[in-house]
Design goal:
Radius of gyration: 18 Å
Number of helices: 10
Distance between the termini: 21 Å
Strand content: under 5%
Oligomer: single chain
Helix content: over 70%
């Protein structure tokens, strides 16, 4: 399973590196979202600084939809999805590999966005350990849940519009917990983030379990 996961993740990441879609489209989109938030709240810098954690994770959440759609668009042509299904790879490995590829892209994006938040919003980045742990857990949740729902919508003609309707309500706990954990870290009270980090961990465990044991059936249906 782990070997298959590494194979699938490596394949997806190599495609993204060669296509440069992430660099040319996904990253600029995320920064445009941050800039629009800055324009909307610029008259009151205090509000902008206090809202920075929520604005950061809204930008990540919206951008994750592009990464998830892109992940399954790779197999949308030339019967690639059928080839993946008939390849003999462990379905759990395929799930973990695709989720890992999405997670790597999101983690790189989040590192860039943190710098953008510090520059555009004037936010002082404190509680760095909690920030990193929150990013890791929240990204794992986004990638896991997104991969599960992404394969459900992959075979439909309306997948581009259906995926946000499926994923966004499910990811509300990730948005809430990650925002609260960021607020605690930036306020200098990292202990207040413990419960929210636990919620993120439960979310990751749930969707990892669903993906590992249910991805094969979902892929067949797609």
């Amino acid at each position: 399973m782990w070997g298959d996961a590494a194979l699938v993740a490596g394949k997806d990441l190599r495609i993204e590196m060669r296509s440069k879609v992430g660099v040319n489209q996904v990253v600029p989109f995320a920064f445009v979202v941050l800039v629009l938030f800055a324009f909307a709240l610029d008259p009151d810098r205090g509000v902008l600084d206090r809202a920075a954690p929520g604005l950061f994770w809204v930008a990540v959440l919206l951008t994750s939809l592009l990464a998830i759609q892109r992940s399954f668009a790779l197999e949308a042509v030339d019967g690639s999805r059928d080839g993946l299904r008939l390849s003999g790879l462990d379905p759990a490995g395929i799930f973990l590999g695709k989720a890992l590829a999405v997670a790597v892209q999101l983690l790189v994006l989040e590192a860039l966005l943190l710098l953008g938040v510090a520059f555009l919003y004037g936010t002082a980045l404190r509680g760095f350990g909690v920030l990193v742990l929150t990013c890791v857990l929240a990204t794992a949740g986004l990638a896991g849940a997104g991969t599960v729902y992404g394969v459900m919508a992959a075979g439909l003609r309306v997948r581009e519009t259906l995926l946000p309707l499926l994923v966004l309500p499910v990811l509300a706990p990730v948005l809430l917990a990650a925002t609260r954990a960021f607020e605690a870290a930036l306020a200098g009270t990292p202990r207040a983030a413990t419960g929210w980090l636990g919620l993120l961990g439960c979310f990751v465990a749930l969707y990892t379990f669903v993906g590992v044991f249910g991805f094969g059936t979902l892929l067949e249906e797609a």
